[in-house]
Amino acid sequence: MPALDFTKMHGCGNDYIYVVATRARPVDPAKLSQRISDRHFGIGGDGLIMLTPSHAGDIRMEMYNADGSRGDMCGNGIRCLARLAWDRGIVKANPMVVETDAGLKTVALNFDGDRLVGATVDMGEPILDGRRIPVNDDGRIINYPLEVDGRKEIITAVSMGNPHCVLFVPNSAVFQLQDLDFAALGRKFEHHGFFPKRVNTEFILPVSRRHLKMRVWERGSGETWACGTGACAALVAAVLTDRAERKAKVELRGGTLEIEWRESGADANHVFMSGEAIEVFRGEVEVGEGEIVPVA
Questions:
Q1: Is 227 a residue of the active site?
Q2: Ranges of residues in the chain whose predicted pLDDT is under 70
Q3: Which tens digits make up the pLDDT trace of 170-215?
Q4: Domain 130-266 sits in which CATH superfamily?
Q5: pTM, whole model, 2 decimals?
Q6: Is residue 232 among the annotated active site residues?
Q7: Helix, strand or coil for residue 233?
């Protein structure tokens, strides 16, 4: 039976199964992602990310969530993909340009001497226009009242290449919720009619103007221990609502990310994210006959 080589990696606990698909690729990566992401019967992860050839950048990131849906962008995932490309000798440029479904992103690997310790990603400019996020309303969605399951919630919506709904909480109660209760809460936002393409939802406690604490529900994957695009969206929303400075750390269940929304200079209005990129293990998974085809 054929086998597919993979690498398990994570950024702050946001874990994906990585496949180098430069010579051969799965016929149905969405179905494969569902199978191998299962934490009981598969490898276990928040989804599948494939490193594929690119005509526009150094490499391309092709991403599938754990439920098989296509992902546009993942901040933690792209850092790990860049490390994978570097470690395997596929890309020797630093910084490198990664093509994603949300456009081209620049990733700079960070070293402590010869040791690779993480990466900084230029996540680009946040999208704040409602219809482009998308949500079902015009203009900026800042401190916006939204009825969710009979309650009025105050949200701020941001896209970082994928849609985010940010809620600021007054205390740590949401961080104490049991997994099933948090899942029920997250699904109410993910499938709300206000979000035509579903939504990632961040619950944010401002600890200080330079420290945000976050718990996240990701569309297509459920609760994850970190979300890079979500951390970026959280900082943007915190700045827009005067809760944070333009540079702050975002504390997630799996670790901490450094986020900066630059105000001036050549990179004005761009959001930069810095964090770890860790290889957990490598292996191979059996696949059926005809499930892998050569890359043309």
A1: yes
A2: none
A3: 999 999 999 999 999 999 999 999 999 999 999 999 999 999 999 9
A4: Diaminopimelate Epimerase; Chain A, domain 1 (3.10.310.10)
A5: 0.92
A6: no
A7: helix
